[in-house]
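Dear support,

We are seeing what looks like truncated structure output for some complexes. This example has two components. We would appreciate it if you could run it in full and send us the complete token output so we can diff it against ours.
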Amino acid sequence: MNPFTYTRAGDAQQAINAFQGSPGPFYVAGATDVMQLLREDVYSPGTLVDISSLPYTQVEVGPRGARIGALARLADVADDDAVLRYYPLLARVLRETASTQIRNVATMGGNLLQRTRCLYFRDAHTACNKRRPGSGCAAMRGANRINAILGTSEQCIAAYPGDMAVALVVLDAHIQLEGPDGPRSVPVAELHRVPADDPAHDTTLRPGEIITRIDLPASRFAESCAFVKARDRMTFEWALASAAVGLEMDGGTVRVARVAAGGVGTVPWPLPRVEHALIGKALSAERAAKAAALSVEGARSAGDNGFKLKLLPRVVEQAILAAGGQA
Amino acid sequence: MNAWVGKEISRVDGPAKVTGQATYAAEFQLRNKAYAALVTATIPSGTIERLDVSAAEAAPGVILVLSHLNAPGLPYAQPKKRPVVDPQAGERLHVFQGPEVLFDGQPIAVVVAETKEQADSAAMLVSVDYRQTPPAGDMDPSRSHAPNEAVAKSGRPGEKGRGDAGPAYRGSAVTIDITCSHEREQHNAMEPHATIAEWDGDHLTLYDKSQWVDNVRQEIALIFGMAEDNVRVISPFVGGAFGSALRTWPHVTIAALAARQANRPVQLELSRRQCFFSAGARPKTLQRLRLGADHDGKLQAIIHEAIGQTSVYEDYAEITLDAANSLYACSNVATRYHLVKMNMNSPCPMRAPGTATGVFGLEIAMDEMAEECGLDPVEFRLRNHADRDEEKDLPYSSKELKACYALAAEAFGWSHRSTVPGRNRNDRWLIGHGMATAFYPSHRSSSTAKATMFANGTVVVRTAAGDMGPGTYTAMTQLAAETLDLTPEQVQFELGDTDMPEAPVHGGSITLASVGNAVIAACRSLREKLGNGDPVAAMRQLGQEAVSADAESKPGEEANIYSSSAFGAVFVEVAVDSRLGAVRIPRIVGAYDIGTVVNPKIARSQCIGGMVGGLGMALLEQAEWDPALCRVMNANLAEYLVPVNADVQHLDVLFAPGEDKIFNPIGSKGVAEIALTGVAPAIANAIYNATGHRLRNLPITPDKLLEVL
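Here is the complete output from our reference environment:
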């Protein structure tokens, strides 16, 4: 670990000023991921700007929408009665995320921005275009069991690891940002970016921007939602593949479907083709399987991760059936 | 007389551990202590062309940087006899004695600074140019070789057996021929390896994480060309080791060297990542098993071959094939053991070294053979029960394996299981039941102890043994209290210091049988000195503040005329997610024949730990090796998975009644290793029962199950 300067900001403006005025700045809040990246020398910051004291910890949730502070702890949201009532998908996803200890520390905004678990990104001595642009991608021919099958490029096959963003895509969440150029709002679905020929930039955030809040539109899918997560270990482990599904049912017929996958894409992966295959159709096991099969359209195996081509449709199918009350 | 043996007393060191009073290696506070950080090689094979330490030397707080460029030559003298914990062929890694790089992660320099953070950051400033040579990164069986004579003499020969296994196999009515494997595993104890070295003139004190302080003393004395009397090693508490602290690793030498050059105490603590490259691993092992049986399910032939991985500088070999040679009655046995040299750090023993590997192969083969013979797996094993050790041609000093099968099968409800694979379904979950035999040879070494009674009637017992977590402190306290007719509160047991009477390695499940009997002997000898009456009165009569007695205990003729082993039977229920490939373990029942159980509470705890280790071996643990880079890619606890609480459900531990007073006076056969063996094959066998598919390559992760489900 290299020496760095640590500064604690009291409000967003202080944080942004500190960020802009420092060499090699990184924001840090819960630090559950940053600590790993620092210890492995993946990050060598000049300055850590601690934003954990910023006043964005509210969990305001009702039937007409939710405003969740970016610095609320995952546990605060997972255990919130109103979240459970109006956004059960979010509560379920959070309970499947990390471990109790991590959820007590990790923040909502930080969770969205966690870096890939690609073994090569996290080992500072290997070739990685995301960590060191232009150095190559050792994962392509290496131990890539956990890597992405969707949204990959010739430059990068690192999977976006998080669970919550997958649910937030389904829930049409927006994030509120503060930054050097003022506030703005971005749909969670547009926060992450596929690597293409620039894997170094995981997100569409501009330098110095801070996530202040996560906003959810009026409660949807509270009756019919599911999150299914396949993983090596029972808990405290990222997804090999996950799926979040929200349905609006009209009797036995799907009126609205939102489906997204995690652990398989370079970004939280929306599955519009799967959605279209469900909308207007009577939900059945056969229909779910047929729709889920579309989840791997365009997917590419890098070797060890080929099993995800089989796993993902099953995860999606199970989530659809569970959301529709048929699992 | 108070009977303390067999009592469920809580750990005597428990309060100290949970309140932070127990001092681990890196926690000793020494005046003027400096901190060291390793610089490690980032290529697997080649030489250092240029090593520039100028930036590191100029960094804040840096005291010195040592590498092959400026380190003094060290004698690295050979011991008269290699320690049992060291590979018997090849040569231990010499630190900073030349530019050669033999594996990625090899220490090539050390930075000593005023603070750990300064040392860590300066270590990153060392710049190195290498000339790389092609590494051996693939575990290619065609490059394998047989162990040499020295390795063979240590009980790990290339070939072993009896009868004529080839023809017997070919002539058998029923045969199977399978291959299986497990990946490299890492010990990953909670406490990272750490050493503090402090010189006082020619005298060196090491505070070290060690399972064998006497070995550290001998090894460091040889490396530095010192008299052993000038080295003292202190290791009172070890936060788990599982075999990783048996050897005296290079970082211990580096700490001592750095302290000598810096002329002040130096602490070197390995990072989690460095523990993967600096303190051994269970070697990946490839196995092939051919079994032949007659129509009645009697084994006619066992042919068991194993290939283990080792480093390019040492031949680390294991007793992988001991189980094949003795666990079952069979007239024709042939085993073949080979090693593949790779550019990696030397492997080392990890809980049930070799045996966990070999028992895995043998026990999944036995399950398959039972099915081929149309027999229940327990019945098949009973038909092939070895009433005596056929390899050594000796009777067992005790063997309650049949009782283990019966006890565990009954507790598990084995008779209710579905014998047809893939038929027991609960929604999308496939339920399966499987079992395996557990086995680990019992050994006993000579050991010494000293017992001292003070005028107030309290006793201190000392020996240079270790306690990496199994409960040595507690068990020895119980033995001393029982022998001296005291309460455990009146006994203080101390270990982990070379100033104490010599003790053998704290590994291989030998501590209770070895050190325990020395403790009893010392306490008996003390009693004799004090007569039969009230010891405090006797002390007063003698007019002394303290009375001490030393004693040695060692195996006798029984070791030559009996074979001694711990046995067990492990039964497992699995639930396999037929869609997503996940495996859950609702319950494990293990019954163990470990002889006298000195403390059932702690023995059960140790067995539970072994079961969880076996579960990890079966389902989770694998160092992900990149053969091109020759590098473990998941060298941290986020990506190297060990079981968490949610993976572990109901664990049931039973002990077969019995004590092995032939093996040793206490009658205990050892617990640590036996509890891990048998779990992984029982899980694999249960997965077959659940799914109808044989998965023979560990760990059995969802990707492997999805190939068949």
